[in-house]
Amino acid sequence: MAEPTIRAAGALLWRDGPEFAVIHRPRYDDWSFPKGKIDPGEHVLRAAVREIEEETGIVPRLGRRLPTCTYPVGERTKRVEYWAARPVAESAFTPNDEVDELVWLPAGEAEARLSYAHDVDLLREFLRGPLHTAPLVILRHASAGEKHAWRDADELRPLDATGRAEAADLAGLLHCYGILRPVSSATARCLETVLPYARLIRASVRTDAAFTVGDTSPEQAVERLLGSAGAPMVVSTHGEIVSALVTGLCKAFGEKVPDDPSLRKGEFWTAHLTGRSMAALERHSPRTTQP
């Protein structure tokens, strides 16, 4: 039986210049980008942020998704999920057993310093795309019980126990992207889904009829979304609206629409946008670490 794949997450961490954070690991005597194994039950977004903090002392904000690197490690395969990332907060680097040196280098010097071809490829891929992107998150509200079992006005239907747990998990996942402006459908279940995140970043949630089922149309929802594209934002909305938003966003930026643009409850799409392009699109669930 084949050994299970080793799953890891990390980032190409950069700052204005641009300069890139390259770390030295004494155990292997190599130079690479920050990364590490995903803990059992840990979400890949949280793992990427945690590993950067542990190895560099830098609190990052994740940017666009970069290609996944897969390579052999002995008789096993290692799969590393990567993002571009920018520092939000930085403390003095403290050498440790895993990482004893961190240097910030311009692209040419970073490429020459890196020990592995897959890291060089990752750097070159990043440089082919836009440096600065803004995350736009389309979020389907978390679990809210069965509609047919709710006897009051549908806009008052709240999250159930599963949904409340999902909303709490989503707060930390969304925070991996930094500060996003929270916008919601004007229904209890959508508001409650994004409320823990809004509390975390000390922001208020703006409701918008354009994203509220029964008060909008797919065309209106897409028009409102495109009018806000370019600013970091999370939109908490309904399953009936999600597919139209994702499809409209992809078509507006000339990108292929995903085979299944819909979402399960509590899942979200993150589009990484510039003023004129969509640099990446990724899908996540609060309940899994994403295979």
From TrEMBL:
Cross-referenced SUPFAM superfamilies: Nudix, Phosphoglycerate mutase-like
Keywords: Hydrolase
Single GO biological process annotation from the record: AMP biosynthetic process
Coiled-coil ranges (or none): none
One Gene Ontology MF term: bis(5'-nucleosyl)-tetraphosphatase (asymmetrical) activity
PROSITE patterns given in the database record: NUDIX (PS51462), NUDIX_BOX (PS00893)
Domain Nudix hydrolase: 4-127
InterPro entries: His_Pase_superF_clade-1, His_PPase_superfam, Nudix_hydrolase, NUDIX_hydrolase-like_dom_sf, NUDIX_hydrolase_CS, NUDIX_hydrolase_dom, Nudix_hydrolase_domain
Superkingdom field: Bacteria
Family that this chain belongs to: Belongs to the Nudix hydrolase family.
Listed name of the protein: NUDIX domain-containing protein
Source species: Actinomadura darangshiensis
Source organism phylogeny: Bacteria, Bacillati, Actinomycetota, Actinomycetes, Streptosporangiales
